[in-house]
Specification:
The protein is mainly alpha-helical. 69% of the residues lie in helices and 3% in strands. A three-stranded antiparallel beta sheet has the order 1-3-2. Helix 3 packs across helix 4, helix 10 packs across helix 11 and helix 10 packs antiparallel against helix 12. It starts with a strand and ends with a helix. It holds the Pfam family MerR_1. InterPro entries: DNA-bd_dom_put_sf (IPR009061), MerR-type_HTH_dom (IPR000551), MerR_fam (IPR047057), TipA-like_antibiotic-bd (IPR036244), TipAS_dom (IPR012925).
Length: 256
C-alpha cells in the first residue's frame, strides 16, 4: 500500500515542504514519483519518517540522522535506543514540571508588589540541562581562542553560586538598560551608551580579555547566533543588533 504526500502530511503533521526538503537532501526519498510529479510513500518510508521525527525530538541534527539511518543498524535496536532516550527525557520533563510546581507554590502566596523570596533558589533550576548548542559554542571558542578559553574556564570555576547568581542579575540589568537606551532612540555612539558598553567590557574581562577583533566577534555572535539573539530580543525586539552596533563602536574607538 502507498500513501500520497497529502496523506503523509495528514498523518504525521509534517509539512509538504519539509517532505520535499527531506527528499532533496536524500534523507527521505519517496518510494516513487508518479508521472504527475506526486510523491508516494510506502510503509518503509513511513517507518523511516517516524525515526527521523523521533531523533529530531531528541535534538539530533539532520546530518547525524541520515548517518544513523544509512548505517543499516537493526531497526528494533535503534528504536529501543530511541525509547530509552525518550524515557530519560520524560523523566527530565517531569522534574521540570515539579520545579515549576514548586515555583508556583512559592509565588502563590505573594499577590502584592513586595519582593518575593524563594526559600531555595537552586530549586528554580532543577531539571534544566546545558544545551548541545552551548557545548558546540564552547568547543568553537576553545579552538579559536585557546588562551581566552582557559582564562575563562578558571574564572568560572572560581565563582561561588552566589557569584554566579549576582553576575546573572548584573548581566540582565545591563541588557535592560541598553534596551531603555534603544527605546529612547539614543545613538549607539552616545557617551551614555558607550559607558554602559564599557561596563559590559569590564564584565567580560572578568573571564577573558578580548582585543578589538574578539570583542567585535562577540558582538556579532550576539546578533547572528539564534540563541543569543533570542535572549536579547526577549527583552526588546532589535536589542541584539543595537548591542552589536554599540560594542562595535566601542571596540573600534577604544580597543586594539
Amino acid at each position: 500500500m502507498a500513501w500520497s504526500t497529502a496523506d503523509v502530511v495528514r498523518m504525521s503533521k509534517v509539512t509538504s515542504r519539509t517532505l520535499r526538503h527531506y527528499d532533496e537532501i536524500g534523507l527521505l526519498p519517496p518510494a516513487w514519483t508518479g508521472s504527475n510529479g506526486h510523491r508516494y510513500y510506502t510503509e518503509t518510508e513511513l517507518l523511516r519518517l517516524q525515526q527521523i521525527l523521533l531523533m529530531r525530538e531528541l535534538g539530533v541534527g539532520l546530518r547525524e540522522i541520515r548517518a544513523v539511518l544509512d548505517s543499516r543498524a537493526d531497526q528494533v535496536d535503534v528504536l529501543r535506543e530511541h525509547r530509552a532516550r525518550l524515557v530519560a527525557e520524560q523523566e527530565r520533563l517531569a522534574t521540570l514540571a515539579r520545579t515549576v510546581d514548586r515555583t508556583i507554590a512559592e509565588l502563590g502566596g505573594s499577590r502584592d508588589n513586595d519582593m518575593v523570596h524563594i526559600n531555595r533558589p537552586e530549586n528554580l533550576f532543577e531539571g534544566f540541562e546545558p544545551s548541545e548548542h552551548d557545548a558546540e559554542m564552547q568547543a568553537e571558542v576553545r579552538e579559536r581562542w585557546p588562551q581566552a578559553w582557559e582564562q575563562s574556564r578558571r574564572a568560572v570555576e572560581a565563582m561561588t553560586p552566589e557569584d554566579a547568581e549576582r553576575w546573572q542579575r548584573e548581566a540582565t540589568a545591563q541588557m535592560i538598560r541598553m534596551a531603555e537606551f534603544m527605546a529612547a532612540g539614543t545613538p549607539a555612539a552616545d557617551a551614555a551608551v558607550q559607558a554602559e558598553v564599557d561596563a559590559h567590557y569590564r564584565g567580560v574581562c572578568r573571564f577573558w580579555t578580548p582585543n578589538a577583533e574578539a570583542y567585535k566577534g562577540l558582538a556579532a555572535t550576539y546578533a547572528d547566533d539564534p540563541q543569543f539573539r533570542a535572549n536579547f530580543d526577549k527583552i526588546a525586539e532589535g536589542l541584539a543588533a543595537y548591542q552589536q552596533e554599540a560594542m562595535t563602536v566601542y571596540a573600534e574607538a577604544r580597543l586594539r
